[in-house]
Fold:
Amino acid sequence: MRDVSIIGIGQTPVGEHWERSLKELAGDAIQAAIKDAQIERVDVLYVGNMCSGTLNGQEHLGALISDWVGLRGVEAVKIEAACGSGAAALRLGYVAVAGELADFVVVAGVEKMTDRPGEQVTAALAMASDGDFEAQNGLSFVALNALLMRRYMHEYGVPHRDFAPFAINAHKNAIGNPCALFPHAVTAEDFCAAKMIADPVNLLDSSPVCDGAAAVVLCPTEIARQFNARPVRIRASSAATDTIALHDRRDLLGLEGASLSASKAYGQAKVTPKDIDLFELHDAFTIMSVLSLEACGFAERGRGVRLGTQGDIAIGGQIPITTMGGLKARGHPVGATGIYQVIEVALQLREQAGANQVRNARLGMAQNIGGSGATVVTTILEAVE
Amino acid sequence: MRDVSIIGIGQTPVGEHWERSLKELAGDAIQAAIKDAQIERVDVLYVGNMCSGTLNGQEHLGALISDWVGLRGVEAVKIEAACGSGAAALRLGYVAVAGELADFVVVAGVEKMTDRPGEQVTAALAMASDGDFEAQNGLSFVALNALLMRRYMHEYGVPHRDFAPFAINAHKNAIGNPCALFPHAVTAEDFCAAKMIADPVNLLDSSPVCDGAAAVVLCPTEIARQFNARPVRIRASSAATDTIALHDRRDLLGLEGASLSASKAYGQAKVTPKDIDLFELHDAFTIMSVLSLEACGFAERGRGVRLGTQGDIAIGGQIPITTMGGLKARGHPVGATGIYQVIEVALQLREQAGANQVRNARLGMAQNIGGSGATVVTTILEAVE
Structure:
């Protein structure tokens, strides 16, 4: 098995891109990543996407996008794992390069959600849950997270306002990210006054519906410096699943898929949570941030919320999270999110995060989640010396 | 890179499975393949599927199906490459095992199409084409194949009736396949009298809308015999793309994706078309059979149709095709087709094809196509001595 590095990154701003089609967005990100990597050959293109069939009337994104970006003939497929599609595609790119089946792999994530009315988007996202027992009975994704949040509040006696720091931190960090959808501050008062979506999840607990595309270029670490002065090494890549339905979980608040995926990644990288300098977690909802921090070993059960209230999640804190705005404020174009996360870790490790730079960041982790914890892909990245 | 073999196969009958859900069909095939392989551990599950979002209201099939079949926790994702999704998933399974990233990989293909009205299925399948320029202008998949067929007939002066042998051969072979949708003979008269769908493509030129699931288990060849007395080695696995839209092709009848994919496979296996004992090709339409035979080097340009009229495609002929009925008569549950094809080659190489056995079959090829030739995955299989 070969060591694998990221030698190119490219991202579009997250937004409502009514003037750009799905393939144009993906093409913009891919061209930027190829330019950043300065490669002249691509062996494989993997595209992470969840909803192109239902929201854009288009499948077959591998062939569509490889053709559009001038990679005619190249091996190309679409990978789908709900909101974890981006990192799932990255994982396959890692497998292809590590296993010596390809040298130069482009992995893109793309999602275009704002061309459709909100209720269609809600229905499309609900396809990440168990259709027979969750979506069928009216549980949207917000509703599933509301069940988790209510249970957490009940179990540990946590008031809703204690989740505010996760939204505040994300929005504050988005100000320094030119690609963020919501680069503006929110306060604890804003959080407490935000419109209720599915009690207790309110608007500021929730990530937005939006469009975006992001792409990375992978190659063997041993030749990475020929293409990029600052490659970022993939120290670990792992994927795990859990039951698709919440009601089948052995431990509702345990997020077993996340802990399994993270523990495999820690083992592969030979590190512990203490070694991680920043963590781009899957803050689709504030409760998901808290559960992820606990499942990945950054806090004991029931204490994840304190990392927010104590300021540990801020840049400069013990475990900075959502350093470029996270899903909440950078935005969550679902199939692209996993690639945005990895690009943000790469920017930190390349010391190109500007005002949001985590000082002396050497080891960063990204975790992308599909469904309410049913697919979890963890990537640990390291600056190449 | 390790050598990879298929040690387990499982398939449901192709049909209108109104009593079984998508996950139940997939589960039936996976359980059968795991039982055939007699393995006690699965590292990864890849699921090939095209239309679950639009036709079944369900995405996230990796997590859904791994959970359903009792593989909770296992790495699992869905792979989409239109009608080539099944073999595209197989290709990724091959990459994972060959590259030493996994030892035991289950690859399933599943599609459930008959729960929806025909016009919805036609629209869903059209998502394999270029949405902006083909589907948007009313070109269904049958219409795209009609353009190809009309051009072929014009270019080479071939009458429509000359395509009859491809339908007749497929239906004849389906009689010996207990999983086939249409196990009954058709005649040249039936072919010429069949209902017109999109001139010149008639009903007997076309593969049917149906449901089905198929699965295989892969492992390194070096340990394959511990699990199955008759493993089938993957001598070559390759994927290529072409322009998604027909009007962008340099050579409309050339099927460049198929020739590129096949030539890569021949190179990897170090064989020529002459060495192939049977060919499970992608006969979604009779014209696709003819173009595939030419693109893969079994006939010169414009002469593929003669392989039918001369009887070369029959079991016992020079290059037997669709030996268990093909897409035409076994059926074409789109995301599952690529796995059905590989299972049928495996049955031939294991000498378990019953009345349809190709004598002394040692090397078989399967080719699965997405769109009108835009994604092509070729697999060359060999009986392990």
